[in-house]
């Protein structure tokens, strides 16, 4: 199953539930921007690639940016429209790889957050994506990336990861590692009037390490100003 099919038929409907309280999460990201001294300075344009239902887009807009939010899932884009109502967020239903479509927007910040980066086809596609982001950033602009590090394989029972649960839904993820990719199987159990039922969907993610991402950033003339890891998620701030 492709990434788009996986979101259209499986994750899209539960993504906001899986992500947690929207206001809390957007405030956390807004705090992250403030703590790292990131605020509108030149064009005031930010592009949120793989925006989902808008946690980062709303935080950027509330921080003073004019935001272009790009995603391909209809359900999430509808939720984004509701969540960003009244804010300077332009919603684009499209491919995050089509960066030249935004070259004339002169973005001073480009964001690819969550684990969207590993959704790309392969390591070469990630390398090209970073190069394309760098090419349209204004001098002094920021590229913010986060992704899960699948470079070290899990084995046995550790491959099964509890994601979230409540009284009516249980989401578990299972990882199966190949040489260059990891097969991610999302297993959703949900309660109905007829009892518990199961829905399963799998898709591929790229295995890439923080060192490889840093190397690509440096190759494209970006200076890494921040790097850390938060519960399994590696985060980078790079500046042109």
Layout of secondary structure:
Elements: H1 3-11, H2 15-19, H3 22-35, E1 45-49, H4 55-62, E2 66-71, H5 74-83, E3 89-93, E4 109-112, H6 123-136, E5 142-148, E6 160-165, E7 169-177, E8 181-192, E9 195-206, H7 210-219, E10 223-230, E11 233-239
Parallel strand pairs: 1-2, 1-4, 2-3, 4-5
Antiparallel strand pairs: 5-11, 6-7, 7-8, 8-9, 10-11
Class from secondary-structure proportions = alpha/beta
Roughly what percent helix? 25-40%
Number of helices: 7
Mean pLDDT: 96
Largest sheet: 7 strands, mixed
Q: Could you give the order of the helices and strands?
A: HHHEHEHEEHEEEEEHEE
Q: What gross morphology would you assign?
A: globular
User: How far is the first residue's CA from the last residue's CA?
Assistant: 36 Å
Question: How would you describe what is shown here?
Answer:
- There is one protein chain.
- This protein starts with a helix and ends with a strand.
- The strands form two sheets. It has a seven-stranded mixed β-sheet with strand order 3-2-1-4-5-11-10, with helices on both faces.
- The protein is globular.
- Helix 3 (22-35) crosses helix 4 and helix 6 crosses helix 7.
- Helices cover 29% and strands 34% of the residues.
- It is α/β, with parallel strands linked by helices and 240 residues long.
Can you give keywords for this protein?
240 residues; alpha/beta; four-stranded antiparallel sheet
Structure, briefly:
By secondary structure, the chain is an alpha/beta fold. The chain has seven helices and eleven strands.
